[in-house]
Structure formats: C-alpha cells, structure tokens
Amino acid sequence: MRKSHKLLKPLVACFALAGLSSTLQAEEQPLMVDIKRLSMESALTIAQATIDQCRKEGVQVAVTVMDRGGHPQVVLRDVLAGDLTLNISRQKAYTALSFNMATSDMEGRFTSPFSVGKVDGLVMSAGGLPITAGGTIIGGVGVSGAPSGETDEKCAQAGVDAISDELEMAAF
C-alpha cells in the first residue's frame, strides 16, 4: 500500500497541472485581432458628401474623416473655408471618435475646471459624429466652418449617411 501511495501523489499532480494548463489556454488572448477599417474610398465618399451638403447649405467648410486609431484619413477644405477650420474639424472628429457620440451631445457635459473636456485636442461643440458599422466604432467625422455647429453636424450626418447602408452590410 505504501508503494502505491507514492505513485498516487505524482499522478494527482500531473492531472492537476494538465487541468491548470487547459484552463490557462482557454483564458489566453489571441496574438492578433481583426479590426475593421474604412477604406480610403469610403472615407473619401464621406468627406465629399459632407462638402456637397454644406455647399447646398451655402457654406464652405473643412471636413476630417479619422480612422478608428484617431489618425486623419481624409481631410478636405473647401476653397473659402478658413485655415482654422482644419484644426477644429480634426478635433471634432477625434472627440466624436473617442467618446463614440455626437459632439453636440457633449456640449455642457464637462463643465468643471479640471474635467475631461479641458484636455487639449477635444472640442465639445456640434459638428463631430462617430462612424459605426454593426455597432462597432470604425472612425469619426468632424466638420468646421459653418455659422453654426448644427449646420456642421447636418453636413457630417449627410457624409455618414452616404455610405451607412454599405457600412452596415460590410460589418457582418
């Protein structure tokens, strides 16, 4: 009996390690993940449709379409849009992307002196929208240059709407 007892301990330890090993393997994360991104053509379609809508409104603007990493993918500035509109459209796109919500929904949200809204590069005024596909954020669009943020946002929405059906179909 003593001899079998000695063999039993290492056998139990082997089974315990095997169980632990399979548990660790089940919890491991993959080395890489697939991330959906806008094609350059899709980003350009959004930007051009945005400019077209603003022209219908009688205004000239700058539009920035960002990828999900927060990098500008397409930037267009209409002929008479001011230089400052480039920076503001970028910041609106980045803000909408970062918070996954329209920047108009953030107006007045961060009012304390040391709140998130005071971080450089964020703009909490209308004109920025997230770009989503299948419930996943894939980018952001920001518009600047119209007399009101509501017009900026209307133009941004026209840009997103220009490919929203295709984005939803491609998400699945």
UniProtKB/TrEMBL annotation:
InterPro entries: GlcG_carb_metab_protein, PduO/GlcC-like, PduO/GlcC-like_sf. It comes from the Bacteria. Transmembrane segments: none annotated. Keywords: Signal. Residues 1-26 form the signal peptide. The keyword Chloroplast does not apply. PANTHER family: SLR1406 PROTEIN. This is Uncharacterized conserved protein GlcG, DUF336 family.
